[in-house]
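seq as requested:
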Amino acid sequence: MPGIAEYELLDGELHRHGEVSHVHAHVGPHDHAHADDHGHAHGRVDDSIKRSRAGLRAVFISFAVLGVTALAQTLIFALSGSVALLADLIHNFGDAFTAVPLAIAFLLRSARGERIAGLLVVAAIFVSACVAGVEAISRLVHPQAPTHLLALAAAGLIGYLGNLVAAQVRTRAGRRLDSPALIADGNHARADAYVSLAVIASAVVVAVGLPVADALIGLGITLVILRITWQSWVTVRGHEHTH
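struct tokens:
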């Protein structure tokens, strides 16, 4: 009976003269014939393209926001000469241009590229911290009180709002796309928002007669940026080890 049953099964399968591999699309290795009908062959590509577009959109929006923020702060720095504001705007410019490696990674749809972009983001944060630190120390050695304090406070507010918007855009996209580089950059921008509030504090303290506080706050901002550097490094490296 097993032989007859096997024969009948084979007879039922072979009556199409070898076309069974195309008729029975869901048996073993024959499922490739209907891959397109079920969207299996193209679904992954579509997801990749959507992810790339979403990542690029988040990167460019945050780049535009931070670019405008840094330019506005630069104009005010030209008036005030505040080293605290200088530290903040240097950092904002650096943060804005981290969009370049991130955009390239999303454009190429490369997971490895995103990890490399994340490391470049960390490097950019570290460099901006070094530049800000050097300027703060220089101002401590050669004191110079900032001027146009109302404009200085406005620059701090602009930095706060700009970074907050950029942080929300990057963090939401990073979590949705599972991108460690975007998440690190979002956390970085969120911390920068609070760093910008230190610029407002500098304007207030200088106004009450403590001009040296501007350089001290600039140095404090540098230390905060270094802490952000470490946190971003941990985020990027931690994600890399889990994949």
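The chain has two domains: 2-34, 51-241.
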